Amino acid sequence: MKDPYKSLGVNKGATETDIKKAYRKLAKEYHPDKSSGNEERFKEIADAYETLSDPKKKAQYDQISSDPFRGAFHEGFFEDFIRTGGYNNPGYGGGFRGNSGFSTRGSNVESKIHITLHDAYYGCVKEIRLGTKTINIDIKPGVKHGQRMRLKGLGQRGMTEDQNGDLILTILLQEDPDFYLDKKGLHTIRHIDMYDALLGGKGTIDVFDKKITYTIPKCVRNGTMLRIRGKGFPSYNNPNVLGDFYINIFVDLPKALNAEQEDLIKKIKEIENGQ
Question: How far apart are CA 165 and CA 89, in angstroms?
Answer without folding.
Answer: 12
